[in-house]
Amino acid sequence: MGNDTSKSLQGPMRLIQFIDSGKWHLVISLLRVINNNKFEYALPVINQELPRSLSVYKNVSDEISGISAIHQMLMTDSGIDIVIGKNALHEYSELGKTIITLFNSHKITKDNIGDFDVSKFNTEFLTLTDSLSDLFPKLLPIMTLRAANKIDKIPDDLSAITTVDAESLNDMYARTYEFILRHLNVIYLLNNLSSRGNTKKFAKGKTEEEFNKYGDFNKVQTFLIQSERFSKPIRSINNKIRNAIQHYDYVINYNDQTIYYHDRNKDSSLTYIQLGNMVIENVSVIFYLNELIYNIDRIQRSFSLPDGLKRAPFTLK
Q1: Is-contact 139 245, C-beta < 8 A?
Q2: What angle do CA 50, 60, 312 make, to 5 degrees?
């Protein structure tokens, strides 16, 4: 790391300190309470935390503002940008504007909002994210190397990590891989609305029935069209590695920290650091999906507002 060590540690340590302070668990707990439709129990805690937060909100009284405030705590106070990328928050803001434009132009309606399974996503996201509080400290060396742009420049004799074991990495890789494939529908559906004006009209002229015949991994190859607005390159999902993990068809060399994955066509190998980096990439994709769902969630809740409020312009704040 050389002279970059201190500077590159700042971002990862901010995230670790947020976890150690208990704030990570608190934010996840508040989001879980709101997802269970018990906002009134979360409200006083949110308002107690807001004065110390980077959120633009300093006091909230309604559910949509409360969701926005606690989401901003997760995205700005926690230091998660060290995982999702330093430019991600700006990207997310632009995505939010596009989704709200779809709503204000009546492409997202009360009739099609139900196509997005918000509650299921939130439940699974919060369970997975809660477990990340145990994983992130173990990945501190990898996050630091990423921050220094040296993740691909490690000499062979220094390419070992002592903070995490292969089994934990395999488990989290499989969990994040499966989560991504289960919840990519939010991208497909938003692309359908943005590019074709209908959640049921899929890329390449496919109907919903035809779309559903594809396996989850094949959907990525077929329907994740990079030229469409909400698509995002996903380079960290490897079905051969995931299948080898699922079937325990791998061998770990503990001496050089390399995992050898067997596949009927071609074997693969990854070092602990390479696999840990792929896990972080997967987590970054998951937070991207969460940002899309967060905006859909706010819109969905707005449909239950009294008629007088429904017509109020929907904003990003």
Answers
A1: no
A2: 140
Report the b/e string of 236-275 with b at 16+ CB within 10 A: bbbbebbbbbeeeebeeeeeebbbebebeeeeeebbbbbb
Structure pTM? 0.93
The predicted model gives 88-94 an average pLDDT of 92
d(CA 166, CA 184): 27
- Count how many residues are written for the chain: 317
Closest alpha carbon to 139 in 273, 20, 10: 273
Least confident residue range of 110-119, 129-138, 306-315: 306-315
CB 78 within 8 A of CB 31: no
Q: Do 290 and 116 meet the contact criterion of CB atoms below 8 Å apart?
A: no
**CB half-sphere exposure, 125, CA atoms < 13 A:** 28
Cα separation, 183 vs 89, whole angstroms: 21
Q: Is the dihedral of CA 131, 168, 292, 203 positive or negative?
A: negative
Pairing of strands 268-271, 250-253: unpaired
Residue 80 in tokens: 């998660």
> Nearest CA to 69 among 52, 78, 56, 51?
56
Q: Which is more confident, 160 or 48?
A: 48
Number of Cβ atoms within 10 Å of the Cβ of 231? 18
List beta partners, residue 271. Answer: 258
DSSP sequence for 137-150 = HHTHHHHHHHHTT-
Q: At residue 258, what is the residue type?
A: T
Q: Which residue carries 């990495």 as its tokens?
A: 169
Structure tokens at 205: 């002229």
Asked whether the predicted pLDDT for residue 316 surpasses 80, the reply is no
Return phi, psi of residue 231, to 5°: -70, 150
Distance of CA 93 to the CA centre of its chain: 15
Half-sphere exposure of 117 (CA within 13 A, CB side): 10
pLDDT mean over 32-59? 95
